[in-house]
Amino acid sequence: MAWLDSHLLSSLTFFPLAWAVLGLALPSDQGGKAAKWWALVGSLVTFWLSWILYTRFQADSAQFQFGELAPWIPALGISYRLGVDGISLWLILLTTFLMPIVILGAFSAVEERVKGFFFLLLALETGMLGAFVTLDAFLFYVFWEFMLIPMYFLIGIWGGKDRIYASMKFFIYTMVGSLLMLVALFYLMNQHQVQFGEYSAAITDLYRLKLDGAGWFSVQGVLFLAFALAFAIKVPLFPLHTWLPDAHVQAPTAGSVVLAGVLLKLGGYGFIRLAFPLFPQAVAQYQQVFMILGTIAIVYGAWVAMVQPDIKKLVAYSSVSHMGYVVLGLFSLNTVGVSGSIYQMLNHGISTGALFLLVGMIYERRHTREISEFGGITKVMPLFAVSFLIITLSSIALPGTNGFVGEFLILLGTWKYQPVLAAVAGTGVIFGAVYMLWMFQRVMFGPLKNPENEKLQDLNLRELVVLLPLLVMAIVMGVRPNLFFSKMDASVAAFLERVNPQVASAQPESATTSDSETSDI
Amino acid sequence: MDGNVSIPAALTTIRPELLSLSAEQLMALGPWVLALGGALVLMLAAAAMKRWKGVVPFFFVLIAGATAWSATRLVGGGEVLLFNRMMVVDRLTLVMTVLFSVAGLVSALSSMRYLDREGLQHPEYYILMLFSMIGMMSMVSALDLIVIFVALELMSISVYVLVGFRRADRRANEAAVKYFVLGGAASAVYLYGSALLYGATGSIQIQDILSWVQGAGQQPSLLFVLGSVLVLFGFLFKVASFPFHMWMPDVYEGAPAPITGFMTTGIKAASFATLIRVVSGVGYGAGLVESVQRHLHDLLWISAALTMVVGNVVALTQIQLKRMLAYSSIAHTGYLLVGILTAPFSADGYGPVVMYLVTYTVMNLGAFAVLTALAKRADSGLNLHDLAGLSRKHPFLAFAMAAFIFSMAGIPPTAGFAAKYLVFSNAVQAGEIWLTVIAVLCSAISVYYYLRVLVFMYMREPAEAGVGIVQSKRLLAALLVMLVLTIELGVFPAPLMRLARTLARSTPARVVQVGMTEVEAQK
Q: Could you give the CA distance from residue A147 to residue A120 in angstroms, rounded to a whole number?
């Protein structure tokens, strides 16, 4: 156990992969039952490890905790450097929390090559956790790229009709962005040598670099754009979002949930961990541009979602809209906005993850996702309808649900920066309610016209077990946001200290005070 | 022994005392003694006794293994100059020797069953491979433009024959003739270039040429510029860089699959390792006067950029696997040229190039071993559709191929990524940001055609009449080693990087040191 204490992050990160490799030795039985349970147990153990992390995390410290350091490529100053702060902690927990749910949810969906499917899911978990725990920019890149491999196969092998097109688009889109980021990273590592006499890829070392930041295309500006391109594609920010609907619609349910739940968060996380603190002046320069893009994403995503005939595509575009809030909040560069943004990332993981699972459940029964095929589902599947309703309400940010806290804080933060943008982005909340409720109405209410829907089975026990944690979290996050902010505040403050010193000092008001307002409502 | 011999002394006739070998020099010749002795004995034995034919492959493995082993034994030692400074046995030579032996070994192991099936099991095959290997070893160790030429011919002529080994096949014949004629022309260009260099500098020894270039007040003449450019062209042909790449796809397609693997790794590694010596020998980045330096730099820059673009863009349209890999190989030549071109201006010097060569060899040998295992009868072009559903029929082959493909595309955590980032980070260090951007964008393009292989292997249903798989334990063993290396070098690249760095400090390294001080002076 002593070893586990000092290597908690390594164990957490590599346990899923190691477990998955061991799982390859399992016999291939009928339907891959052994592989399914094996993967579920593995993901639960990983969650348990992250729970240890959670309980031991010092909430009041902005320092990186649970640090680990080992030389990796000393010649270039690249090391195996791990650590978490209050921001990555929550994203790690989100990942480990979603994984067992995803795996259990995929029990009935996957019938072919079961072992490979769950192997890839667990490998993907290692990739995602690795990106969240690392404090070395280069190692971050390695995990960042590594994630593409399992996701590519998940979409390409188990996906829908146009899976090959979608998986290829996903891979190449992400690759283009991240390769330019790699070049920028080389430049930074080299600058570190020039300025401090030794190579280093440690993120905290790179923070110290002094780079010319005046003007749009200064050194900082160009490097920021290279990093921002990679992260904006991942988020995805309008107009780089076009890979997302394809990938989501074609991916198997588990793939969609992980993609929406965690992979997109890596874009936001990348902004927080790398792009913002490395290039604070460039961020200030481009702030307006990105906030406008974020606002466009919110409204545009909502409009496009409104006209989708396919439920899954609708949810995919709602992702574009919701992730637009994340960008908006981050670039508002004040405590409220940034906290809301991080909160929104967690919310989106829970709500959209649940939505994709629900869509997957109805798809497994009917093999269609066309909204027009449904109607009156409430009568045959009451449990399904209730679950769907709760998640829909959380997705449209009804007070009392998680979505409200995040979006409210983001809009508040944006208002402080520029009221006009907040007003425009606020319409996104309305449009969000329109497309979600309209879809809900068409699917759930009305007469049960389609005879094929008459003998639909309601949720079974396994599906309830899958959905319950998400429903509970949606409510808990809505009524007790302090539970989450308390571990996050110190890190957010430290983040703003670096990125936007004036704002951090000029605003005594912290997220804690503002969210206590919200929970009173 | 050292480089203090003045130029007139080098011009006198060979002195007998310089041809006698010390014990140290004899030791250093160990790999040559083993390989050459083995090749000669094998040739005689195979010719004399018919029943010996069957064991030739076995002996090939033995000889190549022994050569590699003896080279590894010597790596710890210092550098040894041989034959009146015509050859040098240093770490670069030795590590490259190991690399060539491994290329020979893997190709031979995958050839055995393949040749049985094709009905081409002749001892000449292995003997020619040995001679080609000896040519590569000698070329890398050469410090003399003429020795380079002789070794180059030994290497190439053996391979010309191997390319046409399936002599009943029209495409194989075409490939061999094409390769022979164009290769001959390139050799002539190279030779002409060395003659001009000799005329300009009064020496054919690389070190002497370098000291001439670095000598005070020397203005390289037009003769020198022409000579160095022509020598460079000769090598640009051998490594198939734009615009000298036209021969490559046809030759790759016509040659037997294992030989294609051998060529793409062995010949490329040998040519690039020698190119390191030649490029630094003519004073690139190390003492050349500004105008010539800029000229050579621009030449390499344009060639590198176009090689990457052409290789990757044309590869997009290829259906034939061998042709696709040929164009991908051209693209990799481009990345390697980036390494060569930026080496004198970065801390690691030629280290990343060596690292790239090693990883490139490993992943390509693996990929061609897979192609050999899948080769249809008569080796008639394997195309992408033949790979359909491979992951179901033969999961191991598919997985191995996937790893090699990811490595070629440069995606972590594979060896190809480690090598690529080293080259690119050095390029950024050298201030070649735009070239690096072109390189990474080309890498992004390459992802498309590489992934297509995976699409067919994993995401398509098996074709009705799939390809037969050559069942060979030896091939699978070689494949497994390459697979492990591909992943290991990707996850733990540091040891190989350290080795590659020290290689860069061997003979051409003095050059690099000079280059570095200049760069620092500029800063």
A: 10
CA distance A434 to A444: 15
pTM over 0.90: no
Substitution target in B392, B434, B448, B455 with the highest count of A β-carbons within 10 Å is B455
Task: Report the residue from B440, B447, B455 with minimal CB separation from A183.
Answer: B440
Q: Using 50, 70 and 90 to split pLDDT, how confident is the model at B377? A: low
Nearest Cβ partner for B459 among A145, A157, A194: A157
- Residue from B342, B319, B354 nearest B438 by CA: B342
For residue B406, which residues of chain A lie inside 8 Å, CB to CB? 149
At A105, which helix (H) or strand (E)?
A: helix A86-105
Tokens representing A137? 């920019």
User: So what's the ipTM on this one?
Assistant: 0.82
Strand pairing report for A78-84 and B87-89: unpaired
- For A12-27, b where at least 16 C-beta lie within 10 A, e where not — what string? bbebbbebbeebeebe
DSSP letters along A326-368, please?
A: HHHHHHH-SHHHHHHHHHHHHHHHHHHHHHHHHHHHHHHHHS-
Give yes or no for A222 touching B (CB within 8 A). Answer: no
In terms of CA atoms, which chain A residue is nearest residue B424?
A: A183
Q: Are the Cβ atoms of A164 and B454 closer than 8 angstroms?
A: no
Residues in A closer than 8 angstroms to B448, CB to CB, are 168, 172
E strand map for A93-172: none
CA–CA separation, A471 and A81 (whole Å): 36
- Please identify which residue in the block is written with the tokens 């090959």: A164
Structure tokens at B357: 């060569």
Contact flag A145-B417 (C-beta cutoff 8 Å): yes
* B264 C-beta neighbours (distance < 10 Å), count: 27
Task: Tell me the pLDDT tens digit for each residue of A425-465.
Answer: 888 888 888 888 888 888 888 787 778 777 878 888 888 88
Q: Which two tokens stand for residue B467?
A: 């390809």
Report the SS3 class of residue A72: strand
- B contacts of A157 (beta carbons < 8 Å): 458-459
Give B105-158 pLDDT, tens digit per residue: 999 888 888 888 777 788 888 889 999 999 999 999 888 889 999 999 999 999
Identity (one letter) of the amino acid at A24?
A: L
Rounded-to-integer distance, Cα B347 and Cα B349, Å: 6
**8 Å CB contact of A168 and B451:** yes
Give contacts of B 339-378 with A, CB under 8 A.
347-348
Q: With contacts defined as CB-CB under 8 Å, which chain A residues touch B423?
A: none
CB B31 within 8 A of CB B137: yes
What's the token pair of residue B278? 């030649």
The verdict on whether omega for the bond into residue A16 sits within 30 degrees of 0, i.e. cis, is: no
DSSP assignment string, B26-41: HHHTHHHHHHHHHHHH
Beta strands in B79-149 (DSSP E): 80-82, 87-89
Interchain pair A172, B447: CB under 8 A = yes
CB A306 within 8 A of CB A431: yes
Contact status of A146 with chain B (Cβ, < 8 Å):
yes
CB contact residues (below 8 A), chain A span 69-128, against chain B: 71-76
- B9–A contact, CB cutoff 8 A: no
**How is residue A63 annotated by DSSP?**
S
Q: Tell me whether residue B55 is exposed, middle or buried, using C-beta atoms within 10 angstroms of its C-beta: 0 to 12, 13 to 18, 19 or more.
A: middle
Chain A residue nearest residue B496, CA to CA = A73
